[in-house]
Automatic annotation (TrEMBL):
Organism: Marinobacter excellens LAMA 842
Function: Serves to protect the cell against DNA damage by alkyl hydroperoxides. It can use either NADH or NADPH as electron donor for direct reduction of redox dyes or of alkyl hydroperoxides when combined with the AhpC protein.
UniProt binding sites for NAD(+): 146-160
Annotated protein name in UniProt: Alkyl hydroperoxide reductase subunit F
One Gene Ontology cellular component annotation held by this UniProt entry: cytosol
Keywords of this entry: Disulfide bond, FAD, Flavoprotein, NAD, NADP, Oxidoreductase, Redox-active center
Subunit description: Homodimer.
Disulfide bond sites: 134-137
Record domain FAD/NAD(P)-binding: where: 3-293
GO terms for biological process, alphabetical: response to reactive oxygen species
Gene Ontology molecular-function annotations: flavin adenine dinucleotide binding; NAD binding; NADH-dependent peroxiredoxin activity; oxidoreductase activity, acting on a sulfur group of donors, NAD(P) as acceptor
Protein family according to the UniProt entry: Belongs to the class-II pyridine nucleotide-disulfide oxidoreductase family.
C-alpha cells in the first residue's frame, strides 16, 4: 500500500506527487492521461517565472520533475471507485477500470475538469485556432480583435467584461431570453461601449478561413433568422465540468460536482484530500493547481504523522 496515492496527473497531481515524495513517503500517481489539460494547450504565458512555454513541453517537464523522485507513475489508469477506509487512519481503496485496485493510507484526488463544448461544426476544428475556453489564458492573444463570448452565466459575463478591456469588440451570445449572471455583472457589462449582447441566440457554426476562425453563425431563437458575425475569436463559456462522476455518493460534492475542500484541501473523508480544477477552489489555472496540489500533499503528510500506523 502507498502512504500517498495521487489520482490524476495534471499540474495538481504532479505537484502533489513531488511534495509527497520529498517527504520520503511511498508515493504513487495513477492517471488516465499524464499531463491533463496542459497536454491540450498551445501557448502558456502565465506560469510565473516561465514567460512562454507550450503544453506538451510543460507536460514533459512535469513528468521529468516527478521522475526525479521515487514516485510510482501508473499512466493510462482510470479510477472508477473510491472505497474509503473503514476507520480514520485505515487504508482507502481505489478501484481501477482495468480491474485492479490500489490501496493507500491517504489519497489525493486531482482528476481535473473539462470545458463543456458547444458541439457545433467548426468548434473542434478551430480549437486553439480562434476557439478558446480560458479568457485568463488566451484573452491577450486577441488584443484589438473581435471576439464572441458564448454563454451569459457568471463565467460568460465575467469573461466578456475581462475581454472588453483587451480586445476590440465583444459579442456576447446567450441562449436563453435573458442572461443568467448576477445583476451587478450584467449592469457592468451593459455599461461597456464595445460590447454587444445577443439573447435567444443559438450558435450553429464556427466558420474559418486559412486555418483560423473568421466568423460565427447563430440563429435568433425568437424569429428563426440566421445571422453571421465576422470575428477572430470565440470564447466558449458554457461550463467547466469536473471529472468527479466516479466519486458521486462517496464524497461530498458541490451542486456543480466539484469536490468540496477546505483551505487545507481536506474533503469530507478523513485522509482523503483533493486539489486543482476538480475542487471548489476558485479560479482554475495551472499555477493555482500546482499550489493546491502542493498544499494537499503537505496536509496528507500532516495527517500521516498524526495517524501513524499501529
Ligand atoms: P487536469 O489538468 O485536468 O488533470 C487531470 C488529470 O486527472 C489528468 O491526468 C487526467 O487524465 C486525470 N483523470 C481524470 N479523471 C480520471 C480518473 N477517473 N482516473 C484517473 N485519472 C483521471 N491554465 C493556465 O494557467 N494557463 C493557460 O494558458 C491555460 N490554458 C489552457 C488552455 C486549454 C485549452 C485548457 C483546456 C485549459 C487551460 N488552462 C490554462 C487551465 C489549466 O490547464 C488547468 O487549470 C489545469 O490543467 C488544472 O490542473 P489539474 O491538475 O487540476 O487538472
Amino acid at each position: 500500500a502507498f502512504e500517498v496515492l495521487v489520482i490524476g496527473g495534471g499540474p495538481a497531481g504532479s505537484a502533489a506527487a513531488i511534495y509527497a515524495a520529498r517527504k520520503g513517503i511511498s508515493t504513487g500517481i495513477a492517471a488516465e492521461r499524464f499531463g491533463g489539460q496542459v497536454a491540450d494547450t498551445m501557448g502558456i504565458e502565465n506560469l510565473i517565472s516561465v514567460p512562454y512555454t507550450e503544453g506538451p513541453k510543460l507536460v514533459a517537464a512535469m513528468e521529468q520533475h516527478v521522475n526525479e523522485y521515487e514516485v510510482d507513475i501508473m499512466n493510462m489508469q482510470r479510477a472508477e471507485k473510491l472505497i474509503p477506509a473503514a476507520q480514520t487512519g485505515g487504508l482507502h481503496e481505489v478501484k481501477l477500470a482495468n480491474g485492479g485496485s490500489l490501496k493507500a493510507r491517504t489519497v489525493i484526488l486531482s482528476t481535473g475538469a473539462r470545458w463543456r463544448q458547444m458541439g457545433v461544426p467548426g468548434e473542434e476544428e478551430y480549437r486553439n485556432k480562434g476557439v478558446a475556453y480560458c479568457p485568463h489564458c488566451d484573452g491577450p492573444l486577441f488584443k484589438g480583435k473581435r471576439v464572441a463570448v458564448i454563454g451569459g452565466g457568471n463565467s460568460g459575463v465575467e469573461a466578456a467584461i475581462d475581454l472588453a478591456g483587451i480586445v476590440g469588440h465583444v459579442t456576447l451570445i446567450e441562449f436563453g431570453e435573458q442572461m443568467r449572471a448576477d445583476e451587478v455583472l450584467q449592469k457592468k457589462l451593459r455599461s461597456l461601449n464595445n460590447v454587444k449582447i445577443i439573447t435567444s441566440g443559438q450558435t450553429t457554426e464556427v466558420v474559418g478561413k486559412d486555418g483560423k476562425v473568421s466568423g460565427l453563425n447563430y440563429t435568433d431563437r425568437t424569429t428563426g433568422e440566421a445571422h453571421h458575425v465576422e470575428l477572430e475569436g470565440v470564447f466558449v463559456q458554457i461550463g467547466l465540468v469536473p471529472n468527479t462522476e466516479w466519486l458521486k455518493g462517496d464524497i461530498e460534492l458541490s451542486q456543480h460536482g466539484e469536490i468540496i475542500v477546505n483551505d487545507r484541501n481536506e474533503t469530507s473523508i478523513p485522509g482523503v484530500f483533493a486539489a486543482g480544477d476538480a475542487t471548489t477552489v476558485p479560479y482554475k489555472q495551472i499555477v493555482i493547481s500546482m499550489g493546491e496540489g502542493s498544499k494537499a500533499a503537505l496536509s496528507a503528510f500532516d495527517f500521516l504523522i498524526r495517524n501513524s500506523a499501529e
